[in-house]
Amino acid sequence: MFDASILEVFIASTNDLRDERLASEDVLRTWNQSNGSSRQIILKPLRWEKDATSELGPGGFQEVINSNLLDDADILIGIIGKRLGSPTKTSIAGTVEEIERIYQAKKPVLLFFSDREFNLSEVDTEELQKVRDFRKKMQDLGLYLTFTSIEDYKEKLRKSLDQVLKDYRAMLLPAGRALAYGYHKNFVQTLYENISDSDNIELSDYLVPGKEVPLQLSYHDFCVHIAKPVSLDDVSNGAAKSLGRELEEISIRTPRRAFRIYVRPETKAIFDKTHQENLRDFASGKGLQGKIKIKCLEVLDYPTPLIALKDFVDTVEQSLLRGDKVEDTVSGYWQRQKMVQHESFFDTLAELIRKEGQSDSITFFACGKQPGKNLPQLPGAP
Predict the structure, then answer these.
(1) What SS3 state is found at 303?
(2) Would you tell me how many other CB atoms lie within 10 Å of the CB of residue 188?
């Protein structure tokens, strides 16, 4: 077993090219066996007859294929024989629409025209002329190869795949998991263990006047809310600072260690009020409060290891582009990598929290580029 990124490869052709479609899957399967483990990339074939749902949409079945399969594909293999096929609402044929749609999305198109011999009785001259016209159009773009047999097709497809994928290496999928593990071990787990005992918490920023010892804090419950950006593109230092601007940072100390944590402004206001009352009571000789009691201690945090993960993805991307323009690469590939890394981080973190029995006290809240505007509105605020 090995970790791998999945690149979806859409196979576009008329349904009479059954041998070529099966040959395409065979080439992808062979490529995976030879390269999948070492390159950490798996090529997943997509065929409308196998993978499209039977739902009906306003644009007809072609629109269903586009939205369910084609638009998420990373690479297209297009095969043209002696006909183009039935027209769609927006193109002269479904296969043509698929090829042009992927090409316009600036994703790789591996296009092949068949020069195999066929029976004259099978020829529709009108269809054949459409094929010739489309072939001329693609020739002007330098976009296709030809083949004369199935073995010839398979060999050329293999070489084309190697050429397209030569500069693409799957990023190490454990990156997200490793950072999630470190964040959980060094912050989440440690914080959880230390604030589970509410009888030994000190507020280091608030000293009892005259005694110069910290105020004690007690609470009936506690919870930790972790920001979960919608995507890796939303992760940044600015996003972390946005959260900090909407919260208050305080120091707490337990018998084992000290923490700087973020709490709601309402929580800090309670601490400030108690401290001010102590100062006034000390000045007038009255008794002082040594402990503050609140209903719930809410800690909010932005998982800053995500910033390192985002930087890692961007750095690897640029190193692999080698000066190429982004639009000349597999555009869907890097968006998929970002999604995989993002999901890997939070799936791992959620699993660690579950395994440690912390799910009741540790939650996530969805946020965008300004998480401070998406604070969780959950019961438990003091």
Answers:
(1) coil
(2) 22
Q: How far is CA 146 from CA 11, 78, 279, in A?
A: 16, 11, 87
Could you tell me which CATH number the domain at 5-165 has?
Answer: 3.40.50
Q: pLDDT by residue (tens digit) across 85-127?
A: 888 888 999 899 999 999 988 889 999 999 987 766 667 788 8
Q: How distant is the alpha carbon of residue 27 from its chain centre? A: 28
d(CA 91, CA 96): 7
The angle at the Cα of 219, spanning 216 to 223, to the nearest 5 degrees, equals 120
Run of H or E residues at 218: strand 213-229
pLDDT tens-digit series, residues 18-71: 999 999 999 999 999 998 877 778 899 998 776 555 555 555 767 777 777 788
Structure tokens at 136: 């001329």
Instruction: Kindly compute the dihedral angle of the four CA atoms of residues 317, 321, 323, 325, in this order, to the nearest 10 degrees.
Output: -100
Looking at the chain, the domain(s) classified CATH 3.40.50 span 5-165
